[in-house]
Amino acid sequence: MIIGVLKELAPETRVSLVPEVVSALVKMKVTVWVEQNAGETAFYNDKSYTDAGALIKTAQEINSTADVVLSMQLATAGNAKQGAVLIGIYQPLFNAQLMDKWAKNGYTVFSMDTIPRTTRAQSMDVLSSQANIAGYKAVLLAATQYCRYFPMFMTAAGSIPPAKVLILGAGVAGLQAIATAKRLGAVIEVFDTRPAVKEEVMSLGAKFVEVEGAADASKAGGYAVEQSEDFQRKQRERIHESAKKSDIIITTAQIPGKKAPILITKAMIEDMRPGSVIIDIASVTGGNTDLTENDKTVMHNGVAIVGNSALAATTQADASKLYAKNVLNFAKLIIDKEGGLNMNFEDDIVKGTCITNGGNVVNERVSSLLK
After folding, report:
1. What's the mean per-residue pLDDT of the chain?
2. Residues with catalytic function
3. Is there a contact between 65 and 4 (Cβ–Cβ < 8 Å)?
4. 367 near 114, Cβ under 8 Å?
5. Which of 70, 148, 161, 334 is the most buried (most CB within 10 A)?
6. How confident is the model over 336-362, as a mean pLDDT?
7. What is the model's pTM?
8. How far apart are CA 23 and CA 201, in angstroms?
9. Radius of gyration (Cα) for the chain, nearest Å?
């Protein structure tokens, strides 16, 4: 079996496989083809791939021959031979029509962002591995944008108070943001609709701000769920109180397959101190503020609203390494001892990650969107 790795289009800087994972696949009796310069932007050169046992090929050769094609982006995927297996991060709930087209092209599509969030699947969870980096980089980006210090300073010229950071969402990205902001000396408050994360938030040294009446999210696989209008009103009031005294706000709240919830309104932003910064890493699905624009920085009343959902790609070497390990752990479920394909759809992870197979869209949520 041949696994082919395509080069991503700019501005994507990551690559689907790194040399050490190529080496592991070769030991599993898999032939690996890598497009020329595929790892260049992630600082993995062609020689490092050939040293690991890969062959350097053109995109055309990979698409026309490879049995499995790895490409993180929609833009670079979808040109493979009929019957090929495609693996990437395809956001199928937002791209249902394209998934239907790929099904009709005969592709078996595995979208790594739909990996079931179970204990057994943790080593394959790309959302977590990439969100961890995004949370870290969000705080560093805020620190460089912010016009004041993060930590408290006491000098002969006077004292500087610590920055006050508000983090909305205590998932993987939010928890990493808390840890990073704490290391930089900030005072941190955190909102999340899931009371279960309170202990984790407090263990990292942040204050957890509770809002009563949240909908039960215990069966949502670690994701947030939609809340009642009454809860949303109470939440907006509490967030507004915290936002007025915050210097930095980092928003991370997303709901799978839906527009990101608006948590920071224009009125809240107008009550913030000039020079404050909002980093919205949910911008790709609309953002958590009224004024967020994806891949842009918007200035409003002296407050910078940074829409950046691609922060993981700014730490591309390690982001690629973690993603490649996720892919390797998943690949072990669909590769047999002889290096051939063996897609066991009785496996809950294989089944949960599969979007199309046998000419049909097999993922129930994507299928329901098409209907």
Report:
1. 94
2. 117, 122, 125, 128, 223
3. yes
4. no
5. 70
6. 96
7. 0.90
8. 39
9. 22
